[in-house]
Specification:
The protein has 755 residues and is α/β, with parallel strands linked by helices. It has 23 helices and 23 strands. It has a ten-stranded mixed β-sheet, sandwiched between helices. A six-stranded parallel β-sheet has the order 20-19-18-21-22-23, sandwiched between helices. It has a five-stranded antiparallel β-sheet with strand order 2-1-5-4-3, sandwiched between helices. The relative contact order is 0.06. Bound molecules: 6-O-phosphono-beta-D-fructofuranose. The site of 6-O-phosphono-beta-D-fructofuranose (F6P) has 12 residues, from α8.
Amino acid sequence: MRLSLRLIASLVLAVTIVSVAFALYQVQAENRSRKNELERRAQLLAESLQETVEPLLAKGAQDSLQRIVERFGNRERLAGVAIYDRQAHPVVLTPNLAARLGPEMPAVEKTLTEGHNSRLLFESSDQQMHVFVVPVHHDDQVWALAVFHDADYIHAEDMQIWRNTFQHVLVQMLLISAITLLIVRWSMERPIAKMAQWLKELRAGEPLTNPDLPAEDVLKPLTREVTNLATSLRIARASAEEEARLREAADSLWTAERLRVYQQAVLEDSRLFVVSNREPYEHVHRGGSVETRVPASGLVTAMEPILRACAGTWIAHGAGDADHETVDSNDRLRVPPDEPRYTLRRVWLTREEEERYYYGFANEGLWPLCHIAHARPVFRAEDWEAYREVNSKFARALLEEMNGAENPIVLVQDYHFALLPRMIKEQRPDARVAIFWHIPWPNPEAFGICPWQRELLEGLLGADLVGFHIQSHCNNFLETIDRTLESRIEWERFAVNKGGHFTLVRPFPISVDFKDAPPYQSNGHEALRLERGSLLKRLGVETDYIGIGVDRLDYTKGIPERFRGIECFLDRQPSYIGRFTLVQIGAPSRTHIERYQNLIAEVEREAERINRRFQSKHWKPIVFLKRHHNHAEIEPYYRVADLCLVTSLHDGMNLVAKEYVATRDDEAGALILSLFTGASRELQDALIVNPYDTEQLAEAIHLALAMDPRERRERMRRMRRVVKQHNIYRWAANLIAAVSEIRIELAERVKVQPA
Ligand code: F6P
């Protein structure tokens, strides 16, 4: 049944029920009141006649009595009057009344027997009548005086009320039908038809200019979902077109869609599980409500698009203070919040576990151990214990999630989980386990100072694949294995054979999601100028040139060195005083650790010192923004900055460099990049610097600003080509290809070495 019919039928039914119930009540009430009124009149008349009649009866004045009963006949509704003797025979009777009355008069008999008034509604020969009887006394006998009224009008008036009710219901039905049809048409059918037309145009690939979508509250959830669907369709279509274009151009660009199809083909039914310490979305309380935040993490930046494309489950530490409130009874939730694509399983850590495993072993031990940044690693037995405990806690959660999944693929992330691969492989030998080490791997001597190096290496070799960003980290790792463990290294194919288990060791330079912007618009310069103006206004600075630095506040990022580079640049090139400002975005990180607190203090001190030296009323050389900024907040700075400074003292990859390049669809801007980053191997058109060399850094800043715009554009264009080609989807595809190779390896091993 159509919606409008359903609506009309329900409304009409409701109105009819209410009207009929109301009419019934009204009929009964009016009927009662009319009967009471009739009875009251009859009684009044009967009682007044009673007084007149009794003396006449006593006198035997038959004629007078007859005159009286005739006088009271046929007046309005009064049908007549009669006097009955003791035997209930009428003595006098209004003419015509006799013909209408039957032989029996129960009300009269009742009064004669009981001696008091009685009344009755009865059916006469032609209609309904009412009789009121009063006793009259004659010769010590009780006789009866009866007053008769026509009562048909009571029923007639009842019927009139019913007729009126039905007329009203009919009118209401018509009105309801008309109004409902109009409402349905205006508020539902028209907006839905508009939306359908819009979807049709979308499906047909026609250009969509500000679709006029329904704004009605009731349709908002639908509008939202349809808009999301349309966005997904557009993205899918754009990817498909891009694919087709690339196939035609024999290009090899990787997109989310291509990765999704590829991983389905390669991994078939295997499900994907990612484990990391940092979660992709955390929920935090902010001003009375719960806010979703994407943490400042290169790992999250890199892995998130992959999970979106390939679905699966991401297992991570629930660190947000509202995380508990946003999971289901299995500690899971679907993310991204506005377009759920995969499952996030949160693992809870006690404060002490977090203190010892994350802050302690991972970040005071392994982090400085692997980064050559001159921070001394601290190893404590209690921290190691907690590290082992937390690794097995994550292993339990992962095994739970993998329950029922055949041949799962596990991608373990980073130095927080060196022991996890072995733990998993022992329980699920069918799982293909890869671990990606996002930070550098030092040389064997440096790694050798870790008291638990053997346990760490054995844990890692539980994996089928160990990935690093660059080849030299792979080499360091293999050499460390060679020096520490009983195993065979197959250098020709970069594999370790430990007790019959093979672990491949490969470089996978991680990257970002490169989104191809539409061809650069000529009015883009104007838009950029405005954006730049509004950013500077917000910062309270007037300047000609902007530099940008975006980092977690970590001592490996070389932020004080960067500031000193700027100081030196202004000393050497005083014409830039008042004309160049570095905006340094710094997200506080690991602030429980003293070394990090000291770093923040040092960064603030250095910024202040340098600013004091050079600043003027509306200008300063360094604007330090010490808080977490999300991607949307950072992007405008990337877009307007004349240069980006990445001066890490040691860095696995450094995705800020690639993000800056990926954002510059205007092909402007210059990148100054530390030679100690993994990214410097790929982005060779950056101005490569040694961040410890302050003079060189100052020179690079000058070079970037003074460079011929054509050269700057050429460099940026080449770097963009690299990032575009080697984007995050390609990284994932390479990783997946290597993981699929593991399957072949397993099969081969079974063939070669039967159990
Ligand atoms: O750079 C190494 C790394 O573990 C990244 O993978 C991650 O993005 C970053 O450190 C963030 O560290 P944390 O999760 O401790 O804030």
